[in-house]
Amino acid sequence: MGRVIDVPTTRREFLALGALAVGAGLGLAACASATPQASSGPVLSGEYNGPPIQIEYWNGFTGGDGPAMRQLVADFNQSQDLITVRMNVVQWAQYYQRVVAAVHAGKGPDVGAMHVEQLATQASRQTISPIDDILDELGVSAEQYPAQVWERGIFEGHRYGVPLDVHSLASYANTDLVTQGGGNPTPATRQDLESSLRALMSAGVETPFWVPNRWPAHLIFLSLLWQFGGEPYSEDGSRATFDSDAGVAALSWLTGLISSGISPKNVAPDSQYTAFKGGQGAYTWDGIWQINDLKSTAPDLPWTMSALPTIGDTPAVWANSHHLVLFKSRAPDENRILASKAFLRYLIDNSETWSGSGLIPARADARKTPEFLKSPQAVLEPAVPTMHFLPPVPALGEVQAQTLEIALADAILGRQKPDAALHAAASQATQLMQANLDKFGVRA
User: Fold this and answer.
1) CB proximity list for 17: less than 8 A, separation 6 or greater
2) Does residue 37 contact residue 119 with C-beta atoms inside 8 Å?
3) Which residues contact 213 (CB under 8 A, 6 or more apart)?
4) Half-sphere exposure of 274 (CA within 13 A, CB side)
5) Confidence class of residue 23 from pLDDT cuts 50, 70 and 90?
6) Which residues face 55 on adjacent strands?
7) What phi and psi values does residue 110 have, to the nearest 5 degrees?
8) DSSP letter at 128?
9) SS3 367
10) Rounded Cα gap, residues 10 and 139, in angstroms
11) Could you tell me which CATH number the domain at 18-164+321-374 has?
């Protein structure tokens, strides 16, 4: 039978860090030298029946989602005798840099997983293959997926990924602390949350909601921006729009939590989550990827999870998605292509097993299975239509890290007013986005 080889790590997953590392690969030309691989190759009809072969699968599932993916790969390897999947797991912060270098050196993997917001960048760098014409072979169609995440897998008219999951922010509550203080553990509206926060403070909970100055502050801000009716960037990638009235309202609400004493000042990145695990915060907004971490590292913490309350006018929440991709090769091999398709099809057909990752399977039928319905994140399934994704713009993650994230920190730390911080950052971001359109050969 096949075997799984992975690289274990001890640090939990930071899902958005991969965008920061791509800048290290900017020396690679946007139109790189790897020979474009026809996405179709030979047609996979039925099961793979070629010679025994090993294929390479790379991903960044180093956190609580790692065991679920290891299980999926092991199950595939044990389900047949001809294909061995060798899995290489790399921290997301290094993954995108390493995979670009490997592909262009002719030593890249066959199959991979990557964040949907990375697809445009990787397609522009000639790292991944379009897969428009193999969807039927994989048993995939648009009707099986949420429209917003399916559409984000398309860049310049071609599909580059198949959604494996969606993962969003959620509202976590310390149920003992909240109920004892007279609050609502699952607030649905601004009024619900703010009245609960006031009740908790009156009951002696000094700082019931912590606002971090960086991670995941930008994910919280984007959720609020969409709730107030704004968009962070133009769809064509030509300008930043997060300094709109909606953006100012979103950031002003966040900074207001600090000025009113609801949140401590100077909360370091991610320390709001550490505080919550230690019983200090009554609420925290963080990703659903924390589910397995809470189970394993804070087993005695009483908590519940719900969709983000609607602070603005419309329910909305930042989300991301892992997409399955095929990498390009300088020397395409028909058997490797067939084996890669067979493995992709298996991951898609068995994506209900991915519920064990703490994430939400993207495929609709997987979200109806007992494996998903008994998972903690199943309570968020009704919120899937409210999930928002960044537009498919090359190197947008780098731009955001250099502009919006810094502006949020300046406002949250009291260095600048929200409107001034956002306006300056949006101007800088627009300049960088315009330069990227030229760099990657994309025109608005």
Assistant:
1) 91, 92, 93
2) no
3) 266, 267, 268, 269, 408, 409, 412, 413
4) 8
5) very low
6) 85
7) -90, -45
8) B
9) helix
10) 36
11) 3.40.190.10
Two domains, one topology: 18-164+321-374 and 168-319+393-439: yes
| CA–CA dist 414, 123 (Å, integer) | 39
Q: Which is it for the CA torsion 355, 154, 334, 139, positive or negative? A: positive
Cα–Cα distances in angstroms (integers) from residue 400 to residues 93, 95, 124, 263, 365, in the given order: 15, 19, 18, 25, 34
What is the full DSSP assignment across 47-112?
Answer: S--SS-EEEEEEE---STTHHHHHHHHHHHHHH-SSEEEEEEE--HHHHHHHHHHHHHTT---SEE
Token pair of 279 as six digits? 């019983």
**Measured between alpha carbons, how far is 436 from 439 in angstroms, rounded to an integer?**
5
- Residue 237 zone, left/alpha/beta (φ > 0; ψ -120 to 50; rest): left
Residue 322 near residue 362, CB atoms below 8 Å: no
DSSP 135-196: HHHHT--GGGS-HHHHHTTEETTEE--EE-EEEEEEEEEEHHHHHHTT--SS--BHHHHHHH
The helix (run of H) or strand (run of E) holding residue 420 is helix 418-439
Q: Can you identify the CATH homologous superfamily of domain 168-319+393-439?
A: Periplasmic binding protein-like II (3.40.190.10)
Note the pTM of the prediction, 2 decimals.
0.91
Tens of pLDDT, residues 267-311: 999 999 999 999 999 999 999 999 999 999 999 999 999 999 999
